[in-house]
Design brief:
This protein has about 280 residues and is α/β, with parallel strands linked by helices. The chain has ten helices and five strands; from the N terminus they run H-H-H-H-H-H-E-E-H-E-H-E-H-E-H. Strands 1-2-3-4-5 form a five-stranded mixed sheet, sandwiched between helices. Helix 9 (about 240-250) links the parallel strand 4 and strand 5. Helix 2 (about 15-25) crosses helix 3 (about 35-55) and helix 5 runs antiparallel to helix 6 (about 115-155). The longest helix is centred in the middle third of the chain and has 44 residues, at about 115-155. It is elongated and about 95 Å long. InterPro entries: Bact_StressResp_Reg (IPR051932), RsbRD_N_dom (IPR025751), STAS_dom (IPR002645), STAS_dom_sf (IPR036513). This is STAS domain-containing protein. Pfam families: RsbRD_N, STAS.
Length: about 280
């Protein structure tokens, strides 16, 4: 028995879509808070329409055929979109593989000749598996983009440059300093020096868990760059254990003003700029 798979799938497209939607909606993990059922139907219909227009008797066993470029493109877009929306890999996998169940159910209903049905089902399994690989590859890529963007945002938030007083900037550093983060710290600080015309910057490291030779090098590079901009740096928040580590490692901070707390650094900065803060009683 010869089966024209292209005509069969296009004729039964609506039935496949209904079965596919039924399979997806039956999944208990379906996230209706991320996408409405109407949006899910529209997304599924677009993919199924592309598939039924692309597949035929010659390419059904060749997932790499250029005939499926549109399918892969739509599927990649859906997968990345789902990664950004917060879907899990399992939820995205269910979306793709439940399509196979719907197609196979329709094929079993329409093709009664088992000898003709068997190779077609095998080919569809291979085809949907290849679509699954595309889905997961693009999903991981989308999730990596989300993680990278969030990491950049966290780095940006964790290195704020605050104007403490006219001409005095404060940069509280929290967490571990590495090369990439030091670069962000340096760029933010230099940019704020230009914007505010400040002459003093206080780098508070009370939130840095440990100081080693690498962290010290990063700090010294930042201070040297600041000096090139005509500003002076003060390091504050040096705890006793950090001071011992610096001495033990032989790190030379002798040409840098260091203070134990942000308050003492601010007091020193006031003195450098001939500012005097007095306590007064409000009458």
């Amino acid at each position: 028995m010869s089966v024209n798979i292209s005509k069969l799938l296009q004729k039964e497209r609506k039935k496949i879509l209904e079965l596919w939607m039924k399979n997806q909606l039956a999944d208990e993990s379906l996230r209706e808070d991320l996408m409405s059922n109407d949006e899910l139907r529209e997304q599924s219909d677009e993919l199924l329409t592309a598939l039924t227009k692309s597949v035929n008797d010659k390419n059904i066993g060749n997932p790499q055929s250029g005939d499926f470029d549109t399918v892969h493109e739509i599927l990649s877009g859906i997968s990345i979109s789902r990664a950004r929306q917060g879907y899990s890999p399992r939820e995205t996998g269910v979306y793709v593989f439940s399509l196979r169940d719907a197609i196979v159910e329709v094929l079993q209903a329409e093709i009664k000749d088992v000898a003709a049905l068997f190779p077609i089902v095998l080919s569809f399994n291979k085809l949907i598996d290849a679509f699954g690989v595309t889905t997961f590859e693009t999903f991981i890529k989308g999730r990596e983009e989300v993680i990278l963007r969030q990491t950049d945002e966290i780095t940006e938030i964790s290195t704020p440059v605050i104007q403490l007083w006219d001409g005095i900037l404060g940069l509280p550093i929290i967490g571990t300093l590495d090369s990439s983060r030091t670069q962000v710290v340096m760029e933010n600080l230099l940019q704020r020096i230009v914007e505010t015309g400040s002459s003093i910057a206080i780098l508070d490291i009370s939130g840095v868990p440990a100081v080693d030779s690498l962290v010290a090098q990063h700090l010294i590079k930042t201070i040297n760059a600041t000096r090139l901009m005509g500003a002076e740096c003060i390091i504050s928040g040096i705890r006793p254990e950090i001071a011992q580590t610096v001495v033990h490692l032989g790190i030379d901070l002798s040409n840098i003003v260091t203070k134990a707390s942000l308050a003492s650094a601010l007091r020193y900065a006031f003195a450098m700029t001939n500012l005097e803060v007095k306590r007064s009683t409000i009458k």
